[in-house]
């Protein structure tokens, strides 16, 4: 993170971290809770809503108002068109705070690249790789049909949902390099539209190939029809070659229609016995973490209940001289407040004290 901050200073950016404090409230709605990420152009915080809304937590992306490149504006233009659709965060607010522009969107989980680097998962199964590719194609279909390209398709820009129930849903993020396209115009000025669209799809194929081998995206070259260079993909090589060929067939009329590409990915799984109904590897890890946390909470609760039981029994002993009755009640009530017990059980304990 220090390197990222230094990079910002080298580019002449103000230090957003030093001027935006934890606990600071933006637009009387968003309370900053923690820092999520620092980039060369923007900084992202987690914020909690102070108002009653459907979403309790948000990601707040801040950018210096006088930044030469309107990176955040790109995000706004794209998300105002497709935000909230499948695979895209919902946009809630775009405004100004101090000397910064800010964007409030859905809070999402970690990206696929970070999951593989920071967890016990060292390699994804073929079913997971294929599912990432399919959901990526679904996202690109929506994006391209809406009239935008992405420009940076890689595993760092594919993230999972924030809630446990959403951890199997993937989202496309970071539209800083997005370009607006108009597939209905075939003038010389817009003839590079197909190239931009195909670049996104080639990048997605490269991401699938890199995830299959558990290497970085930049370690995989485009196919360019040279099958001999990809012997390590022997099990899925046939589908890779076909996928690459299908990309070259895309024309103005077929932009956004990637059903054939999805079919090839499904065939990649089927021909190798991969079950696409299996959950992602990180879903197993998340479930195990939830189980561990639940067991820990049960142990803590059991210990507190035992302590409370001893205290209650002590005060129910006749002629106990440990203190006035009101003080005893306050002590018990204080102990009860720390317990996540059922209300009927708490009421029963208080009734017993009156006997």
TrEMBL record:
Keyword rRNA processing: no
SUPFAM superfamilies recorded: Protein kinase-like (PK-like)
Pfam family, any one: Pkinase
Coiled coil location: 284-311
Keywords: Coiled coil, Kinase, Transferase
Database matches in Gene3D superfamilies: Transferase(Phosphotransferase) domain 1
Domain of life where this protein originates: Eukaryota
GO molecular function: ATP binding; protein kinase activity
Chain ranges of the Protein kinase domain: 30-355
Listed InterPro entries: CK1_Ser-Thr_kinase (IPR050235), Kinase-like_dom_sf (IPR011009), Prot_kinase_dom (IPR000719)
Record's protein name: Putative Tau tubulin kinase 1
Lineage: Eukaryota, Metamonada, Preaxostyla, Oxymonadida, Streblomastigidae
């Amino acid at each position: 993170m220090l390197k990222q901050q230094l990079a910002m200073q080298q580019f002449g950016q103000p230090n957003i971290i030093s001027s935006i404090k934890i606990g600071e409230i933006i637009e009387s709605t968003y309370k900053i809770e923690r820092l999520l990420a620092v980039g060369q152009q923007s900084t992202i915080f987690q914020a909690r809503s102070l108002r009653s809304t459907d979403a309790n937590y948000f990601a707040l992306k801040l950018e210096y108002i006088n930044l030469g490149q309107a990176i955040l504006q790109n995000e706004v233009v794209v998300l105002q068109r497709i935000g909230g659709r499948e695979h895209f965060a919902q946009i809630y607010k775009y405004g100004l705070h101090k000397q910064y522009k800010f964007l409030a969107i859905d809070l999402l989980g970690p990206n696929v690249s970070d999951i593989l680097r920071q967890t016990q998962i060292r390699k994804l199964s073929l079913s997971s790789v294929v599912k990432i590719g399919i959901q990526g194609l679904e996202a690109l279909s929506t994006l391209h049909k809406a009239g935008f390209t992405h420009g940076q398709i890689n595993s760092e820009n594919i993230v999972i949902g924030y809630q446990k129930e959403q951890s199997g849903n993937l989202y496309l993020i970071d539209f800083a390099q997005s370009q607006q396209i108009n597939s209905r115009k075939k003038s010389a000025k817009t003839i590079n539209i197909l190239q931009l669209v195909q670049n996104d799809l080639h990048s997605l194929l490269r991401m699938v190939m890199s995830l299959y081998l558990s290497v970085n995206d930049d370690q995989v070259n485009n196919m360019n029809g040279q099958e001999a260079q990809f012997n390590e993909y022997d099990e899925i090589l046939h589908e890779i070659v076909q996928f690459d060929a299908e990309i070259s067939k895309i024309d103005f009329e077929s932009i956004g229609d990637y059903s054939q590409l999805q079919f090839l990915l499904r065939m990649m799984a089927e021909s190798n016995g991969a079950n696409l109904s299996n959950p992602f590897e990180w879903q197993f890890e998340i479930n195990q973490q939830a189980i561990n946390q639940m067991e820990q909470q049960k142990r803590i609760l059991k210990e507190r209940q035992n302590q409370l039981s001893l205290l209650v029994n002590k005060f129910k002993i006749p002629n106990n001289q440990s203190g006035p009755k009101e003080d005893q009640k306050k002590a018990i009530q204080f102990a009860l407040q720390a317990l996540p017990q059922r209300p009927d059980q708490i009421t029963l304990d208080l009734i017993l004290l009156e006997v």
